[in-house]
Amino acid sequence: MVGVVNSSTTTVALFDRRPMQVADQLAAYRGTLTALGSGWVLNESDLTKNNGIVTANFILTKNAAFGNNETILTLPAGFRPVSNSGCAAWQGTGGTPGACGLQLGDDGTVTVTGQTGSNTQVRMSLAFRAAQ
Q: Could you tell me the pTM of the whole model?
């Protein structure tokens, strides 16, 4: 069958069925990152929430190689995910470029995993349902 998802083996946090307030459905908000991990610099940022969906595009650089399980930023209140989740991102500049992982905490922490070599930059594009 085309277009059928097996809900017993698939988790899609984006399509959370909780009711939303009318104001949240219609309003568009722009967020600002102010809580960066130690040594991280925000090179580019776009953080918005529209219809309860957060979209986040960031490029961050550290002054030295970053380690596994290092917190790189904390999303501001109102722009945090419904639950803990993970996704892929890109790492590069200084080491072997490639994919790395991100862990998004429901407290807003974003932690990088899968660091290879001496990379100093992380690029990410995320979309998720905001916690209410």
A: 0.76
